Amino acid sequence: MPTTLLAPATVVPLVEDAIAAPSMHNAQPWRFAFKPEAALLELYADPDRTMPRSDPTLRALHLGCGAALLNLRVSAAFAGYEAAVELLPDGKDPWLLARVRLQSSTSTDWDLATLHMAVRNRHSSRFPFTDEEIPAALLDGLCAAARIEGCHLLVPDAWHTDTLLSLVHDSEHREEMDQAVRDETSAWTDVEPETRNDGIPATAFGPRPTGGSAPVRDFGRSKPVPGRNWATFEKNPCIALLGTTGDAPRDWLQAGQALERVLLQATADGLVSSMTSQPLEWPELRWALRDPVTSMSYAQMVLRLGYGPPGPATARRPASEVLDII
User: Fold this and answer.
1) I need a labelling partner for 254 at 20 to 30 A (CA). Which of 18, 29, 117, 209 fits?
2) Whole-angstrom Cα distance, residue 37 to residue 44?
3) Where does 165-237 show beta strands of DSSP type E?
4) CB of 80 within 8 A of CB of 62?
5) 145-173 tens-digit pLDDT
6) SS3 5
7) pLDDT tens by residue, 19-47
């Protein structure tokens, strides 16, 4: 296939869509390099945005970058380009996570392109959801979205859901007892949106749950936020577990793409969502998350799905800050 020459200005909107992806604590751990003559866009992990205490293996970093890669693929398809992706192309450079060669295409990937409207509308919602049940057909569609990206999405039964929620609450208590983890989390949360374009501001925390627990991570649990309200969360939340059969960097990048594809599909279907990585940050709890009777060997993310108010948008670094033209 002949190389398509692309002007740098053509790639900027693609990167702007890519960086709308979710990442742990909204750290946005990505950088992009564009080579116009080769129509090649490279995705790098940003070593300055790692979390050594909470993410020592860089698993969560890879998930965030994988989510950005999926958004890039969606944006490229919507713009009429074919994005040929090569994961981990250089064994000597672990920070280079993917190369994406962009080519003009006469055959649009409509499955990806139709998700474009959800890219900027997807936000994590840490607010109470309604008790309305999600139709089985929509849940099946989300499971199919994960399978397309080579991963598994499991909607567990009641007993497994209770186990997952108990592990979420266990992880909260472990964080309370670990000053290093609390300090690291604090550095990325309750940020001032007027001075930072990353992290999670208090306006995105959602209300404090009555009854002491909720199916959502409470970033204000140990740091009171003035004016923060209380609310009752859904009694029977719809929890989903995203997982893989392997647990190496390539699997994490695939999981990040699957995660974002599920979230975009959920948004397009009128659902709202939130995620919690808290139990995944403790190896002994992460192992207990999996369902031993399925082919899911490694849990990668816990999702909460339902109907309710969309969460507020959190800031993103501008494309000019994360994109280099080579």
Assistant:
1) 117
2) 19
3) 189-191, 200-201, 208-209, 230-231
4) no
5) 999 999 999 999 888 899 999 998 899 89
6) coil
7) 999 999 999 999 999 999 899 999 999 99
